[in-house]
Specification:
The structure is a homotetramer. By secondary structure, chain A is an alpha+beta fold. In chain A, strand 4 (87-96) and strand 5 form a beta hairpin. In chain A, 22% of the residues lie in helices and 38% in strands. Chain A is elongated. Chain A contains three helices and five strands, in the order βααββββα. The longest helix of chain A has 16 residues, at 25-40. The first copy, chain A, has helices spanning 25-40, 45-50, 124-131; strands at residues 4-9, 54-64, 73-84, 87-96, 102-113. Chains in contact: A-B, A-C, A-D, B-C, B-D, C-D. The A-B interface holds A 17-18, 23-25, 27-28, 49, 54, 56-64, 67, 117 and B 17-18, 23-25, 27-28, 49, 54, 56-64, 67, 117. Strand 2 (54-64) of chain A pairs antiparallel with strand 2 of chain B, so a sheet runs across the interface.
Chain lengths: 134, 134, 134, 134
Amino acid sequence: MLENTIEFRARYSETDQMGVIHHRHYLAWCEMGRTELMRQLGSSYAELEKQGIFLAVSEIRFSYRASAYYDDLIRVRTTLGKLRSRGGRFCYRVENAETSKLLCRAETDHVCLNAEGSPRKLPEEIYELLKRAL
Amino acid sequence: MLENTIEFRARYSETDQMGVIHHRHYLAWCEMGRTELMRQLGSSYAELEKQGIFLAVSEIRFSYRASAYYDDLIRVRTTLGKLRSRGGRFCYRVENAETSKLLCRAETDHVCLNAEGSPRKLPEEIYELLKRAL
Amino acid sequence: MLENTIEFRARYSETDQMGVIHHRHYLAWCEMGRTELMRQLGSSYAELEKQGIFLAVSEIRFSYRASAYYDDLIRVRTTLGKLRSRGGRFCYRVENAETSKLLCRAETDHVCLNAEGSPRKLPEEIYELLKRAL
Amino acid sequence: MLENTIEFRARYSETDQMGVIHHRHYLAWCEMGRTELMRQLGSSYAELEKQGIFLAVSEIRFSYRASAYYDDLIRVRTTLGKLRSRGGRFCYRVENAETSKLLCRAETDHVCLNAEGSPRKLPEEIYELLKRAL
């Protein structure tokens, strides 16, 4: 199983008045993880979209365990959890990179769409590429 | 069971390059629904935080069924799904307000925290107030 | 001179750890004002983009005078400041709707682009429509 | 004059339906530049806020010259433009890191506030520290 790891600092603009990172930003962080996992596989999600192939989000489950704070060094570990002919699931572990403390566990399910927004099969070469991450 | 309904237009700044509303904004929309459900009950979440009582998000589950687009009139229906002494669950149905088409179903679980971020019981008067929404 | 007025509540997700609305959200609020000013004129910016005509932002100047807080009722007053064959300027006054206190004054300059991102003249009918707002 | 340079990838969540990075995100990017310039000087803006000292944004001017796209490698060059006893100005040059093409020039003016939101002088040690960046 291939795991991609990224690290970056939590932004001031991501905080809320509770003094912590607002929970919606974890969705953007996991999206960064997906981008980098695909790059690590030798693909590019940006290229995929230029070819009219989209991996739309259909379901998300996020479980928040501890808070992240402004300027914290964050680590996102991304893996591919499932692969189907028409979509798949990515799994994430968001941690504080300095303490390795678990901040959030998450899963996102995706369906493959064409440029008109209709479901379609994953292109064969993308399917084979992603299979290497399982 | 009390249901709160809000309507508003999807913002340009909420779109992404797929030409639809990015999925993270539904979290902010449901948060608006929670605020208004509490106002409808005669409470104010803003006031609650001023008293040092926070309803932090612990779990979220969002199921996306259809896309929302810039300038669409959006409706969010919010209900209280569960109430516990130390937290609760809100449930949401996000629709296109003009067609009533379902866009997203969601649930968010919350834990009550004090100003230091430690779990605590919901204040008695807030518990009783929320109970009326069940 | 036509002035459009919108009112809405500041969202929890728009706060930052200073306990106020983060300054970047005023850009989204002014964008909402532009959308509504165009609707008031009988046009639709959403329709315009579907026809391959874009009003891209080229310059912004925001002057912040007082803070906005979560759940504040916000008012944005939008006017058209300048109109040129290839673009224009919108002007904004962001206020607390309950006290009419000035929160922010802003200007945004726009250039008309085609679907390929190249500068073009405003379509005649859009130019005439916008002229009524001066 | 000290210049801080940061590089990072534009996020998918930062795109809009024009297919480019939405202009409000440049404000968050410049904020990241300020954080890193202060770190380079040996300070920490996170620490400063914990001591009850805030550098609130009072004026911004952004001039957008070219578009940024999803997954572009972005570079932000940050310098201190002015330093006053009660505030200062930061200047920015946002570039495509691969081509060095200028995307945006920006300036942000700041006033020093205490925890109650009242203007105050910059603490002597912060003033001296920032002076080294001029």
